[in-house]
Amino acid sequence: MAEVELTGVAGDLDAAVADLAERFRAALEAPARATAEHDSPTLRARFEEPLPEDGMPVEAILGQLEERSAGGLAGSTGGRYFGYVTGASLPAAAIVEAWTAAVDQNVGMWPLGPAAVELEQVTLGWLADLLGYPWAGSAGGKATGAQRETGPPKAGPGSGYFGSGATMANTVALGVARHWFGRKHGIDVGEEGVRALPPLAVYGSVELHLSDHKALRTLGLGSGCVRAIPIDGAYAMEVEALVAAIERDLEAGVEPAIVIAQAGSVNTGASDPLDAIAEVCERYGLWLHVDGAFGAFFRLCERTAPLVRGMERADSLAVDAHKWLNVPNGVGFALIRDGELHHETFRGSAGYLTPGSGVNIHEFAFEASRSWRGACVWAALKALGRRGVEDLVTRCCDLAAELAAIVEEQPRLELAAPAPTNIVCFRYVREGMDPEAANRTIQAEVAASGRVFHTGATLDGRFCQRAAISSWRTTSDDVQALADEVLRVGDGL
Ligand SMILES: Cc1ncc(COP(=O)(O)O)c(C=O)c1O
Fold it and tell me: Does domain 100-381 bear CATH number 3.40.50.300?
């Protein structure tokens, strides 16, 4: 039989890897610009070509990608990127992530990635330890017998899952909450569907992240079941209003089911009062889910830790790794207090699935096959250690305080919201100037300059400048540069 020669592996692998090493090393340096220079049509045109009929040598491909991407990359690995909540991939995390692509493990089933699965389980335990979340039954079992009758089960051992980000982590965790609610009514929601459930209500503040709404939509519960609870002057959920909403639902015959509290709300970095909310959940027997995409890390800075007191009482916790832990994009994790319930929610098998001696991760979420996401988190934790993460979080919060102080000292700037954590919302103000139009222009022009990048936020219907500090690279010079840029553009209007 004639041997077919495969293209795609053709070429000089040694040359390709040497080229990769050089380009990879350069990519680990801070980028020259904070934003891309080119618009969508320009960048699209660079990639637009018919599907290649024939392959090209492996050593030429990365060079072409880099060339075509030039000027089209966001500068999110630099210290002057203040957009959204974005970490600048740690070198150790990037290096390990690159290696995991080469060994290409499928972490969904133990036999397809045995060492990968074991590493992830250990790393989830480290994360639970780091964030003070009950794990392996260590701090579970808080509820009394009577509460266990009605409320979510509280005993460990806990479990976890590495998903693509906090959106996936929220969806997985709320999937477990949905399963718990069904089970409480003798309904297997996985089998019977949400149509079998009694009318239920979910509670979150008016600042609840879009991803939580999307998770509820995806799970068939619908975002219409969310009661939007008002916030106080610190942008945190008002607990009295939460209780009033629960009572209203009880009176109306709608069953209160889940509270989604935020450790770190994306606009302002505020946290909901988790301890008080946990009390309410215990009193009414509700599932407490904490969306701690970035704010779960507040626990690691002495000044911000009190803001997330009570996080350890959550039934489930969603956190991002690609934000404050500074790993490459595409990794977040869910921690679930009751591992059995977690497994029960997603378990399943099929004739072709042949288990081995370890955990089958596909039975803890939606995905079947998936990459070895947890490895770069392991690498970040190995590189930083607990102390390093604490220092990183503390430094970012200190830099946010520095920026807030600059804003307060500068007569043409004002804070738009309290800034107790790593996010600062502020406005440029000058007499005779329309603050709404001016602030929108300032944000857009600063972004276009490429010197620094930050985004905007609309608070109480008013647009403001918003800077989130979560990069290991950001320094005092960088936050000063942001304030200078906003003033430069504002003064020029
Ligand atoms: C509070 C909160 N939840 C969820 C998310 C969604 O995270 P991801 O983009 O990783 O899915 C974010 C992102 O900013 C967030 O701030």
Answer: no
User: In whole angstroms, what is the distance from residue 177 CA to residue 52 CA?
Assistant: 47
Tell me the CA–centroid distance for residue 167 and ligand 1, in Å.
6
User: CATH number of the domain at 385-491, please?
Assistant: 3.90.1150.10
Q: Which atom of ligand 1 is nearest to the CA of 266?
A: 16
More confident: 24 or 135: 24
**What number of other Cβ atoms are within 10 A of residue 311's Cβ?**
26
CA torsion 126-475-74-442 (nearest 10°) is: 130
Residues 6+ apart with CB under 8 A from 155: 137, 140, 141, 337, 338
The more confident residue out of 10 and 216 is: 216
Give dist(CA 152, CA 338) in Å, integer.
9
State pLDDT tens for residues 219-244. Answer: 999 999 999 999 999 999 999 999 99
User: How far away, in angstroms, is 293 Cα from ligand 1 center?
Assistant: 5
**DSSP class of residue 6?**
P
Indicate whether 142 pLDDT > 50: no
Pocket lining for ligand 1, CB < 6 angstroms: 84-85, 165-167, 209, 211, 262, 264, 266, 291, 293-294, 320, 332
Tell me which residue has its CA closest to atom 12 in ligand 1. 293
pLDDT of residue 45: 98
CA pair distance 264, 400, nearest whole angstrom: 14
Q: Which two tokens stand for residue 401?
A: 């305080």
Burial class of residue 450 (count of CB atoms within 10 Å of its CB; 0-12, 13-18, 19+): middle
Sort 467 into a burial class: Cβ within 10 Å, 0-12 / 13-18 / 19+: buried
d(Cα 133, Cα 188) in Å, to the nearest integer? 28
Element of type H or E holding 456: strand 455-459
- Condensed to tens digits (0 to 9), the pLDDT of residues 68-117 reads 999 999 999 999 999 999 999 999 999 999 999 999 999 999 999 999 99
Kindly report the backbone phi and psi dihedral angles of residue 231, in degrees, each rounded to the nearest multiple of 5, phi listed first: -115, 160
Q: Which atom of ligand 1 is nearest to the CA of 294?
A: 16
166 CA from centroid of ligand 1 (Å): 5
Give me ligand 1 centre to Cα 330, in Å.
Answer: 11
The domain ranges of the chain are: 13-78, 100-381, 385-491
Model-level pTM? 0.95
Whether 8 has a pLDDT exceeding 90, the answer reads no
pLDDT tens, position by position, 12-21:
999 999 999 9
Q: How far is the CA of 204 from the centre of ligand 1 (A)?
A: 15
Q: Is the peptide bond before 57 cis (omega within 30 degrees of 0)?
A: no
Give the atom of ligand 1 at the shortest distance from the alpha carbon of 322.
Answer: 10
* Residue 151 banded pLDDT, cuts 50, 70, 90: low
